[in-house]
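Something for you to look into today, if you have time. Could you write out one complete protein record for me, on any chain you like? Leave the record below and I will have a look.
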Amino acid sequence: MRKKIISFMLSVGLFFFLSNNAQATLKSHKLFKEVYPGKDTAYYSCIICHLGKVGKKGEVNPYGQSLGLAEKENLTEEKLKAVENLDPDGDGIPSGKEIEAGTLPGDAASVPDKK
């Protein structure tokens, strides 16, 4: 009986821990969409700030690092705006211009078409 109680308590704790992290991610996605509206829905994914298509905590790309996400800080509109003129991925194009063009500000291989 004691093992069942401990197992249940661990399960409940894990649920709340994971749901809190998911909630933070959902808030970040919602905020990014609000600050930068009008993009194709495929653009709004974890890969904007994270290294992979599935955003894992702590695995952030240079853009995510510039936002302070590596330190687990909360994303704010002020932080998004503050890094618009920075070029964290070193491709010569500021983050704001990349977001405007629909490319990835944390991936040096993703740059706007030069027409």
Notes: The CA atoms of residues 46 and 70 lie 14 Å apart. Residues 2-35 form the longest helix (34 residues).
